Amino acid sequence: MTIERIVAALLILTVLMASLRLVLWQRSSPSAPWRLAALLLLQPLCAGLLFLTLFPPPTPTTGDTLRIATAGTPRLAAAAPGAPLIILPEAGDISGDENAPDLATALRRHPAVGTITVLGEGLPPRDLEAARAVAVRFPPPPPRPGISHIAPPRSVAAGEAFRVGGQLTALPRATIDLLDPAGRVTDSATPDADGYFTLTGTARAAGTTAFTLRVRDGQRVVEQAAVPLLVTDSLAPRLLILAAAPGPEVKYLRRWATDAGFTVTTQMSAGGGIALGDPAIAINGATLRRFDLAIVDDRSWAAQRGVLIGAAREGLGLILRPSGPIDGATRAQWRALGFGIGSGDLAPIALPKVAAPALSSTRLGIGSTDAPVDIATPDDLLPDVSRLPLAPAAQAPTLLQDASDAPLAQWRAIGTGRIALFAGVDSYALTLTGHRALHNDWWNALLRTVIRPASGVQQSGLIGWANARLTLCGLSAPTPVERPDGRRSTLLPVQGCAAFWPDSAGWHRTGTGKSFYIYPAKALPAMRAARDRAAMLALRPPTATDRAGDSAPGPSWPFALAWLIASALLWLLERARRGRQSAM
Amino acid sequence: MSATALTRPWTAPARKRAFLNAIAIGVPLALGAAAVTWRLAGVGAAIATLTVGLALSLLIALRLAARFDQDWLIRTLDARRPDMEDSAALLFADNATLGPLQRLQQARLTARIDADTPDRLAPEWQRRSIALTAIAALIIVALALLWPRPGQGPPTLAPASEGVAAAPGIPRLVAQNLRILPPAYTGLPVRDSQSLDARVPHGSRLEWTLRFDPQASVPRLLMLGSQPLALRRDGEDWIASRTADAAFLYRVDPAAGRGPTPPLHRIDAIADAVPQVKAISPKASLTLVTRGQRSWSPTFTATDDYGVAASARLRITLAIGEGENVTFTEREIAVTGSGPARDRRFTPRLDFGTLGFGPGSDMVVQLIVRDNRSPAPQEARSPSLILRWPSAQQPEGSGLEGMVNTVLPAYFRSQRQVIIDAEALLKQKSRLSADRYLARSASIGTDQQILRGRYSQFLGGEESAQPQLPTADADAETHHDGDGHDHGPPRQPAPGFGVAEDVLADYGHPHDDSAASSLDPETRAILKNAVDEMWQSEVHLRQGHPDLALPFAYRALRFIKEVQQATRIFLSRVGPELPPIDPSRRMTGKREGAASRTLAVAPVERGDGPAAAAWRALGDGPGAIRGPIALDALDRWVRSEAARLPDPLALSGALDAVRRDPDCTPCRAKLRGLLWTAMERPSARPARRVAPNANGTRYLRAIEGAAP
Predict the structure, then answer these.
(1) N or C: chain A end with fewer CB closer than 10 Å?
(2) Do the Cβ atoms of A260 and B626 come within 8 Å?
(3) Which of B652-668 are b and which e, b meaning 16 or more Cβ less than 10 Å from the residue's Cβ?
(4) A416 in Cβ contact with B689 (< 8 Å)
(5) Tens of pLDDT along A500-533?
């Protein structure tokens, strides 16, 4: 209960009691009816005026606040009392006090303004810079249903499986499909409680392409948005496989890496100084510098630990794998590296459920004579693949998980290189049972995470909309940009960044070889709204030092004067003898 | 003259006439209905309809005739014959109930009645109705017989929808029909397709009938990727035909390349599916013979898209015999299926006696069905069902688990078991009755006898011979069956003692035929001693003196231990033959010939080069080509790799569309989408990590504790 209400209640109570007193008085000593009526009327009037004296009504302030109408402002905003209403172009055809092409213009016209109230969905990015000069009051509208965020992969290697993350807003029962460029559904998911989703697709040859996200509510398509994908062909990595004994795991790893076009050097020890595989090389810092990646089993690790760690500090990607149950010393060493390797025996890996053939066929390409398409069906027996017990570790983020969310691989940085631990044993069984894609995805994820860094890696990740300003950074000199239709513009960087105004949707390419995707102006409206909304909420809200906005309490003296007059009248009337029937 | 005698002749003509009237109307109607049914549903239905129709006509005719009864006669006589004086009813009245006046009148009527014939009373022929019905029936029958069947006679042309702009003077397709004549074995009717795209059964004959305006001179059907098909003039129309051996794309070229290019049409040839055979019963592939079973009737169903041949072959493989002495016989018998052609059921009855199937044999059956495709029927085989008749002697077992290396420990344990049992019996002696004690002791003696028998095998089958009585027990009482006292319940050798350990007999077999020859003479001597001791032990056990038997048993155990330490038994393995280990080289430290080796590995051949290149060129990213794209390489690739591609025909069509109109954005998008389905997914080469910048490197080194 506010103080106003308490005072109001007290005043009403007083008026009621006074009225009661008047009525009783009238019965004991009757007087003229008009006098009673006048007294009864004047008392509430008096009380009301007293209340207004104490709490004068707010009056719209002018001069230092403005109301800004943006997209989605209700038409009747002008009718509401308040500060002058400035209409920005996005607000559309509504009437206000003044039209302005942008916020900066409006603020220039009203230099005294210190606080603005933004109506509607919020200021466009164009006005955010200007809005930083003032305090912004922004009652956020309810979020728009749709895809509020989408995170396409920054860079995908040819043939790689990639994941698209995103968030849906205000669509709790929607289904999300990922359509491949041929228009086939390649993955489907329902968002979690917060609306987050992750979908998986597979790339093919290098080039630019766009998958499509389709949001369905039942059978109705709510929204569709492109997932731009920049597929790059990277240099063949140089891989060293060290094994202390020949075995199927090494054989199939070597086969997989060779088929993928890696430069593979395999060194398998057969005991007694006999080495199998590729011609023997000395394992030392100089030779290891020639490799990007090394896959090392537990027994080779024990023999070459110092050299390998040293090479990893220099950038080598090191992947440790157990060849079976490991001994206590190795376990302790790996634990000391930060991996959450637990004690205990090998446990079976929970393999993910095989997708329906219609889905899995979209994830595989066509087969070849050497490697025909091989799809495991849901009815097939799952291979027996096991893993060392691995627990989530603070120092080593989890890289792979099995279907029961048990960590399967972890990695950590060491120097400029990285070390990963793959806890799986006998992953080769996957390639023999129709799960070749899973084997490929696992090992590719491992290698991709730890591979020796290289300069000049192409990445996209910039998301822009047509007819919206875009800032491109990392430019040192004037650079041409090629638009989707082949037209070229030149970017003039200032302090490494340049502004670019895309006028058409599609893939753009800068002269430095960087590609980025521009969405059509109407695509992903919920994502743009969410972005603008987040930017708005990050602006400075009004504080106590700012004026309290558009409704300051008004002056109270007119009410005080009126109250005085009414009180005097009341007093006079009560004292006067007119209308009072003389009792004598 | 009685009433009935009068009624019958007087109503008979009318009845006959009414009956004939109804029949004359009903029969043509029934015939018409039968003709229509024959056309719609075949001969069987037509005969049924005709029968029902005729029966119905007969029924109606009889009912109509039955209306002409006595009441009718009275009414008609009263109405037609003035001389009846409205009292015809008197003719049929009972004389007894009549008054004199009525009798008089009756007599007068009786006298007058024959003045006219009954024929005059019959109703008229319904000439109009009969004629109309007959004409209608004739028309119906004629229509039913002559109404053109689809696929017969000249086709009705449908207006063409090529979507090509008309150019003056250049012929244009205006009407079209595609007649599809599926192969006879499919049983599918001939049909006319108004569209030029169709999905037809493989081997169908396609007949195009096309009409052009203005009249074309040399129209052709251009087949994408093969020879064009010339059209033949037939009056106003042009005709061509071809067999659909494979799916193909084509376009109608009315003007030999002049004018706009018409769109492509697609004919898909649906291949005849291979029949599917399933075993319905038994569900499991392995079934065991039940007691008293004399025959076996497995049930199979075979389904096919057009039909399964009624006769199938059942392949019966009999595996008779045990162990290594198994003979296989294979034969095929013909079986006849029941049920509709598309879903036949085969239930052969296999009589054990006829087939020679007996205990210890396996019968494997497999049904081989064919569909009705011509010329080459397709064959499908069912899963094999196995019926096993387990032999009484042989325990169930399979595989080579626990091969031979536990042979001697098993025997050793057995002698140990005899000792343990005997000692346990001695401890319980006070608690047992004498008979029971004797029986238990004799039973252990039997065990000892079996064990002795097994060891005797190694000495050349001396088990059956009477062992030489050791001198120390020469006066010992000998026992025979039937010598007056009980030897305890005779033990069957098969179940129970020692069988589980009898791995040698189950899985191995001695090195040569004689078990004894696998042992050297020294071992044989020890083993002989052991067997002798066992004999003594057995004798005492059977006499109920386990205490006396124990020393011999212990001695036997000691000898067996010696045998075990002294020798190995060499057994030939059943299963894979591994190369022998050269013991002379083992653990010698010599490594001649063992050296490091390079194991070569060659990457698999991959290739979707043209597809990937065209895919990049059609896009809008790097590598895009916005003008005309050279698609010849892709075209060649699609043709050569058609077997690998999911839909090479669609790809060819899209390719053709882009080639014709390089600026057509939807065509390019469609081709690009199809190319996505026609690309390999290369094994990923991991994308490189972005190298950290100088600050990042310094940070990474610093957290490792290294110098920045």
Answers:
(1) C
(2) no
(3) bbbbbbbbeeeeeeebb
(4) no
(5) 898 888 888 888 778 888 999 888 888 888 888 8
Nearest to B596 among A275, A363, A365 (CB): A275
Alpha-carbon span A182 to B678, nearest angstrom: 10
CATH architecture of structural domain A146-233: Sandwich (2.60)
* Nearest of A409, A408, A429, A431 to residue A420 by alpha carbon: A409
Q: What is the pLDDT of residue B94?
A: 80
Q: Fold for B407-572, please state it.
A: Four Helix Bundle (Hemerythrin (Met), subunit A) (1.20.120)
What whole-number distance in Å separates Cα of residue A561 and Cα of residue B274?
105
Partners of A208 on chain B (C-beta within 8 Å) are: 619-622
The domain B276-389 is classified under which CATH number: 3.30.1050, 2.60.40, 2.160.10, 1.25.40?
2.60.40
CATH architecture of B158-270: Sandwich (2.60)
Tell me whether domains B158-270 and B276-389 share a fold.
yes
Which tokens sit at B430?
């006070």
Nearest residue, CB atoms, B688 vs list A234, A364, A416: A234
Task: State residue A239's pLDDT score.
Answer: 92
Tokens representing residue B248 in the block: 């193909």
Report chain A residues whose CB lies below 8 A from the CB of B668. Answer: none
- Taken as a whole, chain B contains a residue count of 708
Backbone phi, psi, residue B82, to 5°: -60, -30
Angle at B202 between CA B200 and CA B204, to 5 degrees: 65
Instruction: State the average pLDDT over residues B485-511.
Output: 43
Q: How many CB pairs under 8 A join A and B?
A: 202
Q: Where are the beta strands (DSSP E) in B371-484?
A: 379-381, 385-389
Supply the pLDDT for residue B622: 59
pLDDT in tens, A229-278: 888 887 888 999 999 888 899 999 999 998 888 889 999 988 777 888 88
By Cβ distance, the residue of A274, A367, A486 closest to B596 is A274
Q: Which two tokens stand for residue A178?
A: 């990922």
Contacts of A270 in chain B (CB under 8 A): 596
Nearest alpha-carbon partner for A205 in B667, B683, B649: B683
Band (pLDDT 50/70/90 cuts) for residue A59 is low
B608/A208 Cβ within 8 A = no
Strand-pairing partners, residue B371, are: B308
Segments making up each domain of chain B, as ranges:
3-146, 158-270, 276-389, 407-572, 609-677
| Cα–chain center distance at A197 | 11
Interface of B with A in 585-624 (CB under 8 A): 591, 594-599, 601-608, 611-612, 615-616, 619-623
Say if B698 is an interface residue toward chain A (CB within 8 Å): no
B685:A414 CB<8 A: no
Tokens 């004068």 sit on residue: A56
Q: Chain A residue with minimal CA distance to B703?
A: A415
Mean pLDDT of B288-302: 89
**What CA–CA distance (Å, rounded) separates B617 from B632?**
13
What secondary structure, in 3-state letters, does B340-390 show? CCCEEEECCCEEHHHHCCCCCEEEEEEEEEEECCCCCCCEEECCCEEEEEC
Q: Which of A234, A266, A416 sits opposite B692 (nearest CB)?
A: A416
Query: Measured at the alpha carbon of residue B582, what is the angle toward residues B576 and B586, in degrees to the nearest 5?
Result: 120
Residue B535 contacts A, CB cutoff 8 Å: no
What is A238-365+374-450's CATH number?
Answer: 3.40.50
> Could B673 and A183 be called an inter-chain contact, meaning their C-beta atoms sit closer than 8 Å?
yes
The tokens for B427 are: 């401890």
**Is A60-141+530-547 a CATH 3.40.50 domain?**
yes
ipTM score assigned to the predicted complex: 0.75
**Which residues are CB-neighbours of B514 under 8 A, at least 6 positions away?**
B460
